[in-house]
Amino acid sequence: MDAFYASIELRDHPEYVGKPLVVGRPESRGVVSAASYEARKYGIRSAMSSVKARKLCPDVIFIPGRMEVYKEVSKQIHAIFREYTDIIEPLSLDEAFLDVTENKKNIELATDIAKAIKQQIKETLGLTASAGVSYNKFLAKIASDYRKPDGLYVIHPDKAIKFIASLPIELFWGVGKKTGKKMHLLGIHSGADLQKCSLEFLINHFGKNGNLFYDFAHGIDNRAVEAVKIRQSIGCETTFEKDLTSPMAVIIELYHVACELTERITLKKFQGNTLTLKIKFNDFSQKTKCISNHHPLTDLDEILPLAKKLLKEIDISQHPIRLLGLSVSHPTEKLYPQQLSIQF
């Protein structure tokens, strides 16, 4: 996203559009959390003291941050991402890697996916986003920063080596101030200089990071986009000190388990529409039954009747019960999207 916090404030306060704006507090100990592009023209940057920001631009507008709002907008952005792919690796509230080798909409060109996402964010959220498209994470990240704001830059595989050669060494991942200074002392000022270095030379001077720098210089980055695992189920179960032998005792304990499950669902804001009942008998045999609903199960008034319905499907008269469990999960849906031979 482009100047994420500041852009949200400008969206919500259109009277400040075109004016230098900072998210932060103007007090002497205040710090700039984000700066609009207008403020950046004066040299104002995030993490700068508010006092310095005011000196650089006496007319700068300070707005206190609203983290809950920013988090909610971030969720909305990720919901848009998930319309296209589930392989999403968040870097921050406003930045993420997406693997669209397979995509839910069967769009053939990766560039078209980026355009569609940018347009959808602009139309639904009133914000601009910049996107980078390439065949690995290193190049996609650099491309995303290349034409901000509201940019889209594509690095084709056959153009990658030439593009990398043109980069200042500071743009390479893993090159901070200390490493950058060392590289300059070694005569490495650009990607072209890095491409001339042997793997042995880089390992000797930079240790294991030498492998990384060598690969990046030659357009190689084998790191996969690592999707955050989404919770697939939520549940609770109780093992009893004394085995349950009467149907009434089972109903009472089932009620308590359903209450606890409902509390956990509310706490975690979980949504799933399949309820599973698990019963373990005193001989350690186990039975499970499940039922699916047409909408998410979140209330006790819905969960308990379904749990009782499942209970009736299990013969509990043969053995005393030592454990009762309930869980709610997502429906099991396997999608087989068209394979995308990644094109740009």
UniProtKB/TrEMBL annotation:
The active site is at residue 95. It catalyses: DNA(n) + a 2'-deoxyribonucleoside 5'-triphosphate = DNA(n+1) + diphosphate. Pfam families: IMS (PF00817), IMS_C (PF11799), IMS_HHH_1 (PF21999). Its main location: cytoplasm. It is found in: Cytoplasm. Belongs to the DNA polymerase type-Y family. This is DNA polymerase IV. The gene is dinB.
